[in-house]
Each structure stands twice: as structure tokens, then as C-alpha cells.
């Protein structure tokens, strides 16, 4: 039966782009994206000139009728996108860099256009299962057994939230106000935030000290757990780090797994940054015993170079996710047969984007090997940067202090000048960071390590190669002489 809606004069069909109209729109965008991609290495690492006025300019009333697409698209690229941080470019050595593989953007275009519903398996059996298949790849990468499963989230923060909710459900009987969770003073703030979302009183997040390499002191954690039990608290979870934001430190995962086992606690690992280094031999050495964790946060939008909005949670036994997340409305059709599952039964969301496709397509098109090689290259570049910063000491009167030996791809350092007190040294390093960033070839961001202001280089973008690291080192050398 053919229904011809064009006969209905009262219907507004202007939103229903034909294939040709969509192609026209994409054709209009593509020259801008070509120019963007091809000029990435020449673009400034940051630009905040006119940032406030650009931001204010977008605060306009909703238009009643549409505008010329070429004007709208040009404005987007030339004005709105002209300010901010060049987080897709090779000079972005700040925070924990993301990625932005163009293949993933094409996957998003497909996913949004076909707009299949993946929350229920029956809505898109192929696409929903493809997501499960990608999560199986991830489970294999960390060494999880066949019972493992998981789901994609919009990022690490939401994944840690679901992990803590799952831990609470599986390990905490009784009053939430007595439950306690253990992590280190180097944990990302999303751990405490997730615990807050999960309803835990903030003071019940026990922040344990680290050793000189910024790994959590497992002995101190054990003592705290035992003390808490004596005081009538109910310890239920440990959150370890496989790559801290500050220094890239990886906790002693085997010791944490032993402790969690002995104390019967849930072990979650925040491997948002470090997890995909499991693709490399060095990463596997560093993250030995990762597979013993009950759950792991992985962030493909960090160490798998995907666009922002791609996080995931995997658990060693998928049935725990179901226990923590399953709740169904009577308007939902019955779930699929045993072999498959409704993603909404094991995760917080019902309706959401088909996020798995943006990982699947690039990996299918490139294979996993270039990812492995890129991560190995970043480890090598980190060693190269560290060595060169050390050598810089030979030509200066001040001391360029390397805070710790890098474990992943963060180099943390600061300049020490004899005769200055702690506050003056912090000021010196604030000036140093500004001087390094001034040429806009790179963007470095600082942190505070036990109160001290420290500058970090984080090498993780797939577009950052040796030439950019050399440029960064040249900027540091110039700035050190300048301040
Ligand atoms: C170690 C670590 N954990 C968690 C997060 C939070 O992840 P997201 O920003 O994707 O929510 C970050 C973010 O940089 C991180 O570096």
C-alpha cells in the first residue's frame, strides 16, 4: 500500500529532507570540515580572544523561519567555533586529551539519520547487538570472562556513577548512611560526585593517602576499612585508579584485588584514562590483575580517540548490572530470548543514541593495530619528553623538578628557584605555564599535588606526534629562560 502524503495540503513536510536535500546540506558542510581537518596542525592550541562576545552573540531568540543554510553553516565555522580550546588538534596536551576520529563522526551521521532505537533489543537487533559486540572486544582487551557485559555511557563520570550504584546494590545491605567507600587522594573528583549521586553521605567517601609514586597505600586502606568496621560502618566498595588525571599513576591493582577479596568489597577501577593501554605490552604489565576488578570504567573518548560522549562501564558479571538497573514499564514489549538482552535492563537509560556504532566503524575500517601503535607511540613520546626535561637542568641555574617517573603519558614538573618560599614557587610556575602556552602551539594545564602547583604535559591525542612534542619542549625551554 502506497501512502502519498504530498496530497495533504495542510501538512508541513519541510522538515522531511529528501535524500538529495540531505546530500546538499552535507555537501555544504564538507568544505568547512575539510578545511578544519587539513589545517588542524596550524590552528592555535587555544584562542580566547573575543570569547565572551562570541558566546553572547548566540543568545538570540528562536527564529520563526529558517535562514540560508550557507550563512548559518559559515557562521558556525567562522565565528562560533573560532574561540576556545583546540581539543581536536595536536597541541592539546592539557587535562586528559580526547580524540575525535573522523570515521566516528561519519558513524554518528549514519546513526542519527537512521535513528534506530537500541534501548530495546527488538528495536534494532543488529545495531543493539553490535554494541554488545564492541563491549565484548573491550572485555577481551581487559581479560574479562564470558560472563562480562556492560554498556556505553556519555563519559567516565556517568559510568562511575552506575558502578557505585551497582556496588551499593550488590554489597551494601542496611542503611546507606553507614556505608563507606574507599579511594585515594588522587582519585578523579567524579568518584566523590558519583558517590554523592548514589546517595552516600560525602564524609563516607574515605580518601586514603598515596605513596611517593602517587599509588594508593593499600596498607592504609586496609587499616581504615578495619577501623570503620570497628566503628560500626559498613564498608562496601573500593575505587582504584588505572591512570590518575594528575600524574597517570596506576594503583597496585593486584593488591587492591586481594584487599577487596579479603574484605568482601566491590572493586571498581577507574580506567577512564589508562584502560586502553591494555592494548600495549607496557600497559598490560602496569595494569596486571585488572581483570580481577568487579567493574571497570573505560573511556573510549580518551585513550581510544573517539569523539566526546563515548564512555563505558564493563562488569565481570553482567547479572550484577541487571540487578542494579532493571525496572520495566508495562508499555514495553517483552524482552528478547535468553541469548540477548535489552540494554535498558542493564543500564540507566532507555532512549539514547546508538553509541556503539561510533566505536565499531573506526575499528572495522582501521583494525585495532593503529590504536595499539598510537598508544605505544604516546608512551615513547612521554619517555622522550621526560628525558629532555631532565637534560634541560644542565643549562639552567634553577631546578626543573620532575614530580614522579611517568607511568602512562603524563609528565608533571615544576621549576624550583633557590631562595623562594612555597607560595613564590607556585607564582613562578603560574608564570611559567602562561609563558609556555603564550605561543599557542601547545596548551598545558596545571594541577595541585598535595598543595603544590604543578604543570602537566599529557600526551594522548592520536594527532600528537614527535614534532609537536619537540615544539612543546622548545616552548618550555624558552619559557624557563624567560621567567
Ligand atoms: C581518571 C579520570 N576519571 C574520570 C574522568 C571523568 O570522565 P568524563 O570527563 O568522561 O566524565 C576523567 C576525566 O578526565 C579522568 O581523567
Order of helices and strands: HEHHEHHEHEHEHEHEHEHEHHHEEHEEH
Helix fraction by DSSP (H/I, runs of at least 4): 40-55%
List the uncertain runs.
Answer: none
How many E strands? 13
Helix vs. strand class = alpha/beta
- Shape descriptor reads globular
What fraction of residues sit in β-strands? 5-15%
Number of helices: 16
N→C terminal distance: 77 Å
Small molecules (ligands, ions, cofactors) in the structure: pyridoxal-5'-phosphate
Largest sheet: 7 strands, mixed
Number of domains: 2
Topology:
Blueprint: H1 19-38, E1 46-47, H2 51-57, H3 69-78, E2 84-85, H4 102-114, H5 125-142, E3 149-153, H6 156-171, E4 179-184, H7 189-197, E5 205-208, H8 218-230, E6 234-241, H9 253-263, E7 266-271, H10 281-286, E8 295-298, H11 300-303, E9 311-315, H12 318-325, H13 356-366, H14 369-392, E10 399-402, E11 410-416, H15 422-437, E12 445-449, E13 452-458, H16 466-482
Parallel strand pairs: 4-5, 4-6, 6-7, 7-8
Antiparallel strand pairs: 1-2, 3-9, 8-9, 10-11, 11-13, 12-13
Amino acid at each position: 500500500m502506497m501512502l502519498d502524503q504530498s496530497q495533504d495540503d495542510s501538512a508541513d513536510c519541510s522538515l522531511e529532507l529528501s535524500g538529495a536535500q540531505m546530500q546538499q546540506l552535507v555537501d555544504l558542510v564538507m568544505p568547512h570540515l575539510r578545511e578544519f581537518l587539513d589545517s588542524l596542525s596550524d590552528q592555535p592550541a587555544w584562542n580566547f580572544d573575543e570569547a565572551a562576545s562570541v558566546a553572547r552573540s548566540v543568545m538570540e531568540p528562536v527564529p520563526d523561519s529558517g535562514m540560508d543554510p550557507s550563512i548559518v553553516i559559515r557562521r558556525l565555522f567562522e565565528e562560533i567555533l573560532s574561540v576556545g580550546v583546540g581539543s581536536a588538534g595536536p597541541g592539546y596536551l592539557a587535562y586528559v586529551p580526547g580524540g575525535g576520529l573522523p570515521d566516528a563522526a561519519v558513524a554518528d551521521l549514519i546513526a542519527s539519520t537512521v535513528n534506530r532505537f537500541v534501548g530495546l533489543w527488538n528495536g534494532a537487533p543488529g545495531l543493539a547487538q553490535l554494541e554488545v559486540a564492541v563491549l565484548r572486544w573491550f572485555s577481551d582487551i581487559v581479560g574479562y570472562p564470558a560472563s562480562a557485559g556492560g554498556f556505553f555511557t556519555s563519559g567516565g563520570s556517568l559510568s562511575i556513577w552506575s558502578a557505585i550504584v551497582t556496588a551499593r546494590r550488590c554489597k551494601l545491605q542496611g542503611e546507606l548512611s553507614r556505608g563507606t567507600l574507599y579511594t585515594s587522594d588522587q582519585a578523579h573528583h567524579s568518584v566523590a560526585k558519583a558517590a554523592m549521586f548514589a546517595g552516600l553521605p560525602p564524609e563516607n567517601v574515605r580518601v586514603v593517602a598515596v605513596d611517593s609514586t602517587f599509588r594508593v597505600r593499600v596498607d592504609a586502606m586496609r587499616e581504615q576499612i578495619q577501623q570503620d568496621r570497628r566503628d560500626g560502618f559498613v564498608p562496601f566498595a573500593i575505587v582504584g585508579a588505572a591512570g590518575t588525571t594528575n600524574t597517570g599513576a596506576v594503583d597496585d591493582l593486584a593488591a587492591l584485588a586481594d584487599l577487596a577479596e579479603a574484605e568482601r568489597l566491590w572493586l571498581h577501577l577507574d580506567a577512564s584514562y589508562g584502560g586502553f593501554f591494555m592494548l600495549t605490552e607496557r600497559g598490560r604489565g602496569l595494569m596486571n590483575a585488572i581483570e580481577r576488578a568487579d567493574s571497570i570504567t573505560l573511556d573510549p573518548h580518551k585513550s581510544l580517540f573517539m569523539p566526546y560522549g563515548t564512555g563505558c562501564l564493563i562488569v565481570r558479571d553482567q547479572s550484577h548490572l541487571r540487578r542494579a538497573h532493571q525496572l520495566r514499564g508495562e508499555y514495553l514489549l517483552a524482552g528478547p530470548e535468553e541469548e540477548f538482552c535489552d540494554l535498558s535492563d542493564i543500564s540507566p537509560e532507555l532512549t539514547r543514541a546508538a553509541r556503539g556504532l561510533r566505536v565499531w566503524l573506526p575499528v572495522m575500517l582501521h583494525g585495532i593495530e593503529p590504536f595499539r601503535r598510537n598508544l605505544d607511540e604516546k608512551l615513547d613520546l612521554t619517555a622522550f619528553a621526560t628525558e629532555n626535561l631532565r637534560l634541560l637542568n644542565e643549562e639552567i641555574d634553577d631546578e626543573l623538578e620532575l614530580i614522579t617517573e611517568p607511568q602512562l603519558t603524563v609528565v608533571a614538573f615544576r621549576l624550583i628557584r633557590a631562595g623562594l618560599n612555597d607560595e613564590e614557587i607556585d607564582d613562578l610556575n603560574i608564570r611559567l605555564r602562561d609563558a609556555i602556552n603564550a605561543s599557542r602551539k601547545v596548551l598545558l594545564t596545571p594541577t595541585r599535588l598535595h598543595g603544590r602547583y604543578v604543570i602537566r604535559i599529557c600526551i594522548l591525542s592520536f594527532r600528537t606526534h614527535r614534532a609537536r612534542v619537540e615544539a612543546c619542549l622548545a616552548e618550555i625551554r624558552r619559557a624557563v629562560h624567560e621567567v
